[in-house]
């Protein structure tokens, strides 16, 4: 049995998200800071997805072809399958996803490849997952491709898209926490404005929050999109960008507690590495990338001490080394998957 529905691992909170990669839903004019949650006009639920920075992830993460690897954000398994293709028969791959639909989609791979196991869990619960899977000695490589997936955005019933009407949900794990509608219908105006400002950098946050409160109860995505559109004029320099982009991003991040999940996930993932193991993180907007950069820097920089002091890494308090600089998609990938242009990959290696 290698499928783990895991009530013991699911805490009462929620999780996180980011975004995914499907060429077919990329609006022309979104900036690298913002993810388009338009999802395409009235699109049916889709299983399509294109993993971003695939060759860079496989190249930087896989140094030995055996040992334990972790895909902390399975999605539809694009990265996971490519990593498995590079690993030997005695390797293990542990997959996690907080979305029950992703876990269900992973069953096919569970059946096809005995090296692979899937857990319904958040990556902040990685330590418990590895315990439950009986992994000792840490992981050789861990990938976090943070955000939401194309199938999540493209399925209007998940409530992530401002183009296709659906219930205002936005939970990556619909079995946990409040839906976006439940929160918006009960939160104070100040709280809503703060979320829109902090997580969406939305300048019209107060006006939008006021109109949301006046229009309650809200139940659908288009209701929310219309309210925002009435408050935020379309950007004349960027007509392809829907005025509700920032609001949807902010609410999604809040509902899924994505910032907390990333903070805790980075710590747990790093702690779960074997010495010499690597952690690769793909993020999709600057707030997330900044968080990853700061954590990686803190792990890899010594506290200031007299120069040329003959001390070991462990004595200096350094536990990691950065593997190269941040990596962006190259032109060949951008040509086939323009969505990859907002992706940034950072890799770190545990040294003690
Ligand atoms: C960008 S997609 C990953 C795509 C995947 N790399 C692939 O190639 O198919 C992100 C996935 O991570 C999941 N996810 C987001 N935050 C998570 C978290 N904190 N813990 C576990 N899964 C998470 C989402 O549900 C989604 O399925």
Set down the secondary structure blueprint.
Blueprint: E1 3-4, H1 54-61, E2 68-71, H2 78-86, E3 92-97, H3 100-105, H4 107-112, E4 116-120, H5 126-132, E5 139-145, H6 150-154, H7 180-184, H8 189-200, H9 205-215, H10 221-231, H11 245-255, H12 258-271, E6 273-283, H13 286-300, H14 313-316, E7 320-322, H15 331-336, E8 344-350
Parallel strand pairs: 1-4, 2-3, 2-5, 3-4, 5-6
Antiparallel strand pairs: 6-8, 7-8
Helix pairs in contact: 8-9, 8-11, 9-10, 12-13
Low-confidence stretches: 10-36, 39-45
What is the total tally of β strands? 8
* Chemical compounds bound to the protein: S-adenosylmethionine
Query: What is the ordering of alpha helices and beta strands?
Result: EHEHEHHEHEHHHHHHHEHHEHE
CATH class of the largest domain equals: Alpha Beta
How would you describe the shape? globular
Helical element count? 15
- Give the integer mean of the pLDDT values: 87
Strand content: 5-15%
Overall domain count? 2
CATH fold annotation of the largest domain: Rossmann fold
Q: Helical amount among residues, as a percent range?
A: 25-40%
Q: In the CATH classification, which architecture of the largest domain applies?
A: 3-Layer(aba) Sandwich
Radius of gyration: 20 Å
Structural class: alpha/beta
Distance between the termini: 34 Å
Name the CATH superfamily assignment of the largest domain: Vaccinia Virus protein VP39
> What is the strand arrangement across the widest sheet?
1-4-3-2-5-6-8-7
């Amino acid at each position: 049995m290698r499928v783990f529905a895991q009530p013991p691992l699911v805490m009462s909170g929620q999780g996180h998200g980011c975004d995914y990669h499907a060429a077919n839903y990329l609006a022309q004019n979104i900036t690298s800071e913002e993810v388009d949650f338009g999802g395409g006009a009235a699109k049916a639920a889709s299983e399509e997805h294109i993993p971003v920075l695939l060759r860079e992830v496989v190249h930087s993460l896989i140094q030995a072809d055996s040992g334990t690897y972790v895909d902390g954000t399975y999605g539809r398994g694009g990265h996971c399958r490519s990593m498995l293709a590079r690993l030997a028969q005695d390797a293990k791959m542990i997959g996690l996803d907080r979305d029950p639909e992703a876990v269900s989609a992973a069953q096919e791979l569970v059946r096809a490849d005995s090296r692979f196991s899937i857990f319904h869990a958040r990556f902040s619960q990685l330590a418990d997952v590895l315990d439950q899977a009986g992994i000792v000695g840490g992981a050789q490589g861990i990938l976090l491709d943070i955000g939401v997936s194309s199938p999540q955005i493209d399925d209007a019933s998940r409530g992530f898209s401002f183009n296709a009407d659906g219930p205002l949900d936005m939970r990556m794990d619909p079995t946990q926490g409040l839906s976006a509608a439940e929160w918006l219908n009960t939160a104070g105006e100040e709280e809503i404005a703060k979320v829109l400002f902090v997580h969406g950098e939305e300048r019209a946050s107060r006006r939008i929050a006021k109109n949301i409160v006046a229009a309650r109860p809200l139940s659908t995505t288009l209701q929310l999109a219309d309210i925002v559109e009435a408050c935020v004029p379309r950007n004349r320099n960027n007509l392809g960008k829907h005025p509700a982009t920032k609001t949807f991003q902010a609410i999604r991040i809040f509902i899924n507690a994505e910032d907390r999940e990333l903070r805790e996930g980075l710590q747990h993932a790093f702690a779960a590495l074997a010495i010499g193991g690597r952690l690769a993180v793909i993020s999709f907007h600057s707030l997330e990338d900044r968080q990853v950069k700061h954590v990686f820097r803190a792990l890899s920089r010594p506290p200031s001490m007299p120069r040329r002091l003959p001390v070991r890494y462990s004595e200096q308090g350094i536990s990691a080394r950065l593997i190269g600089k941040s990596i962006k998609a190259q032109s060949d990938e951008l040509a086939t998957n323009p969505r990859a242009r907002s992706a940034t990959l950072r890799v770190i290696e545990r040294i003690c």
